[in-house]
Write a structure and sequence with these properties.
With 181 residues, this protein is mainly alpha-helical. The protein has 10 helices and no strands. It folds into 2 domains: 52 residues, Homeodomain-like (Arc Repressor Mutant, subunit A); 124 residues, Orthogonal Bundle (Tetracycline Repressor, domain 2), CATH 1.10.357.
């Protein structure tokens, strides 16, 4: 039942957004009573935070490749999987009009997704410097944020999906020219 509720919460978040999401709507979508929700979660913020925790993978250590392009493709692919499993809602909670969404949900996304991937991107750039395919001045947190920023923009402003073609274009035409030695 808990899994059905958490999935219904994500479906509702994707469908109606945070502001219009209600415990009643989630209960109806999960085919249960709202009392069942309130026994476990005091409000929609806690419910959504748990739903995100439920589906968001903790990015594991990525395979290390022998070139920066493959490392970047692997890491950007992780963002694609996160968007897919969260039905696009993971980054929606960080969106500007998400000011009404609370810090708890943002913290879940930052701690489960954003910060681990940022660290892995920086590590990939540092490995690239050691191999000679990334210039030393590009192994910075700012350069490591370019790809995630484009993904965030795509998911929140353009509301378009993260296709394989988009990720390839992002890596080949934006990220690599920005960091290559």
């Amino acid at each position: 039942m808990e899994s059905a509720i958490l999935n219904a919460a994500l479906d509702q978040l994707a469908e109606v957004g945070y502001l219009r999401l209600t415990m009643e709507g989630v209960a109806a979508a999960a085919q249960t009573g709202k009392a069942a929700l309130y026994r476990r979660w005091p409000g929609k913020e806690e419910l959504i935070a748990d739903a995100l925790e439920h589906v968001l993978p903790v990015p594991a250590d990525m395979p290390v490749h022998d070139n920066i392009r493959d490392d970047l493709m692997e890491l950007m692919g992780c963002y694609q999987r996160i968007v897919d499993v969260s039905r696009g809602t993971a980054f929606q909670v960080l969106k500007q009009d998400g000011e009404q969404s609370k810090d708890l949900m943002r913290d879940v996304v930052r701690e489960r997704v954003v910060n681990p991937l940022r660290r892995q991107l920086l590590a990939a750039l540092e490995r690239g410097v050691e191999r000679g395919d990334v210039r030393a001045s590009a192994a910075t947190s700012t350069c490591a944020e370019i790809g995630p920023a484009m993904v965030m923009y795509r998911c929140t402003i353009d509301a378009e999906s993260l296709t394989d073609d988009f990720l390839t274009e992002l890596v080949d035409n934006v990220l690599l020219p920005a960091v290559r030695a």
